[in-house]
Design a protein that fits this description.
Rossmann fold, globular
Length: about 250
């Protein structure tokens, strides 16, 4: 018996990066998983099915309301409910821009995906969770909200908004049996970041700021995701857990 047997989970932005690890972890605990991303997550779905799990992939943009509403309806019809939403989809620019270089188009696009996208996903699944009188929403923010690195104003601002959204939603939805929490990763060595030769020194510098002095890997975040998704955290809501090896003490 898995901790999530009988549960249905949506994971956004799970074709690449950390998302596939969340999806595989949820499936390994028994959840039926639906993935939405801008590109097909067929490889991840195949891996989950090969391991004996259940999964589907939907191609779409989380910043588009019609797409997100259709996804929620499709998953509800196919799997008989939605119990878990992992709001993971995010834009993250690796190059940096000063506040004077930042265009309004760049600013708006970040907020469209990182903030409006989360809002739309929550808006789509909440009626289903209210019908069930139970739900888990896990929003992915960032440790940069506390460290405030320069030349990342657009990104950090969206992640700060997610933290506020998490707290407000927890208060609003608690009466419906819906818990809302957030994960704040540090710099994580995904395939993309780990494969960049120009980031070797930066990754090591970040590792040196941690109490646990190594690079953060996607696997390091799965346990927290499963805790917030499972009945083990049924009396936890409105919280944010920093998972960065002890660089930040929050």
């Amino acid at each position: 018996m898995g901790r999530l047997d009988g549960k249905v989970a949506i994971v956004t932005g799970a074709a690449l990066g950390i998302g596939p690890y969340y999806a595989r972890g949820l499936a390994a605990e028994g959840a039926k998983v639906a993935i939405i991303d801008l590109e097909p997550a067929d490889k991840i779905v195949a891996e989950i099915k090969q391991a004996g799990g259940t999964a589907m992939s939907v191609v779409g943009d989380v910043s588009d309301k019609a797409t997100v509403q259709k996804l929620a309806a499709t998953v509800d019809k196919a799997y008989g409910g939605i119990h878990i939403l992992i709001n993971n989809a995010s834009l993250a620019r690796m190059g940096r821009l000063s506040v004077t270089e930042l265009s309004t188009e760049e600013w708006d696009r970040y907020f469209a995906v990182n903030v409006r996208g989360m809002f739309l996903c929550v808006q789509a699944v909440v009626p289903i969770m209210q019908r069930q009188k139970y739900g888990k929403i896990v929003n992915v923010t960032s440790g940069t909200v506390w460290s405030g690195p320069p030349q990342m104003l657009h990104y950090v601002s969206t992640k700060g908004a997610i933290l506020g959204m998490t707290r407000a939603l927890a208060t609003e939805l608690g009466k419906d049996g819906i818990r809302v929490n957030a994960i704040a990763p540090g710099l994580t060595s995904t395939e993309y970041i780990g494969g960049r030769n120009d980031y070797v020194d930066y990754r090591q510098a970040m590792a040196n700021t941690r109490a646990i002095k190594r690079e953060e890997m996607p696997e390091d975040l799965v346990g927290t995701c499963l805790f917030f998704s499972s009945p083990e955290s049924d009396f936890v809501t409105g919280q944010c857990l920093v998972v960065d090896g002890g660089a930040l003490k929050h």
